[in-house]
Fold this protein.
Amino acid sequence: MTNTTSTYGLLLRRYSQHGYDNIALSLVERRTVDGVGGDAPRNPPSSYDMPARYRGLRLEDLGLEGWFSSYPPHDFLCDGAAYRGVYKVDADTAAACLRTLKLIDKQVERDAAREPADILASLCAALRLTFVCEQVDNNFASSYDAHQWRWLTIGEGRNRYRQMIREGREKATARGNERGAAA
């Protein structure tokens, strides 16, 4: 008899879009069969196939996303947990989204989380997520299996997110200084 185990966490990735550097976190699943596998994250199943603790919540398209301002002081702009890329919403979906965001917001308030890395930790606590994974290669393959991954605890993920924000701010500042010198 095979024993399939699924755990849930956040995928941490950096990308560029419309001239801005972005850092995004999205929900993923890590699935092992008899303790084997789990080398690459997977898109989570639909809410209907998730564990009971997620029933009534909307997890698809949920995440944290931020970008670096192109103007000094080149702050990292992150508006907290939000849904992205949602193309169809009916009343039941809207209600599930609202329940999910209220659950997360309640945890953020309880933790007094104000900076993006602390909001990451609150999101993980609210949804009982167990890991953060980061893509460590730069290839443009579309399959999760074609990439290399670094698996982190929530604390390590929070620290890595802080480090990525710091590095991104330094890069945005340097790019802004280059533009200013060229003008």
In short: The chain is about 35% helix and 30% strand.
